[in-house]
Amino acid sequence: MQIYWTTLVDVIDEATDTKTFYLDLPEGFTWEEGAHTHLALEGFNSGEKPDKGLVRHMSIATLPEEKTIGITTRLRAERSRYKTHLSELKSGSSVALFKTHTNIPLKRENRPVYLLSCGVGIASFRPLVLQYLNDSNGIDSLHSLNIDSSGEQLFSGLFEQESYPSLTAQYVTDRPDYYEKVNKLAEDTHGIFYIVGSDDFLRETIATMRERGISDEQITIDKHERFRSDFLG
């Protein structure tokens, strides 16, 4: 396993309790849109065994062409040990990256694509939208639906662009409104649906879509292949 050590460049406030950590791009580190990585904090491998409490599976919210690795996450008042250490990082702090992989690359099958997310999970879709704006070949349209009880719309400037009518977005603040809109979107039986969120969110959304006749083949989730069968047949 190759470990890439790099440094923190900047931290940006995206919304209340939500920040993006921008990391220097280490030589040889590459990824695709929709990728995740293991972000480890300094000291995670200083003992006889790795300290798993200093490692977290994180989505990468940027594309390689941006020349930085962006990690967007919540930092609430009550934090885990990992989030506490993460919040204390300063510019120049060292972190490690390893086991980078993507489960949700952008599919180009001449069909509409729908991005369904909960909370900060929408950050996983930011690079997919950027890739679509770079090259929309093979994608009829791209629509994002995000539920966030905070009411603060993450990345709304990117997801809603009047100059690009085939890119649309909806933001809702509660589950009933979200599922009402999912039912409506699922009327497009030709679409491809990406889902990112908690395990319960995935299961509930998948069940709703199945009821509307959407097949498992049309659903893509941010889970490794060996865990996909826990959610999809």
TrEMBL record:
Protein name: FAD-binding FR-type domain-containing protein
Domain of life: Bacteria
FAD-binding FR-type domain ranges (all copies): 1-107
Matches recorded under InterPro entries: FAD-bd_FR_type, FNR_nucleotide-bd, Riboflavin_synthase-like_b-brl
Signal peptide: none
Coiled coil segments of this chain: none
